[in-house]
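Exercise 7.
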Amino acid sequence: MDVTSKIDQAKSALPVEGRMETPLRPPAKRQQPQSAKQEDVVELSSSLASISTQELDREQARRVAAIKAQLDAGSYRVDTRLVAQKMLTEGAGL
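Solution. The predicted structure, written as tokens, is:
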């Protein structure tokens, strides 16, 4: 007996069951598009316009000038504990 005849015997012995016998469900109903389209609107606060980077730039320039003056005078000191602490907290996120 060859393999093909064994397959044919097995096919006839097993009834076909499962999904094929269950009726198909009707397709899902699609929602009708609304006749009036709604558009998204974004409004930015007017307070954003009042924020000026000029003041921030001036403050940074003051800090840099103060550090340069300390360097020139030889009085600039680095807080090594603060540097180490920042290194550890920054490195912890890696």
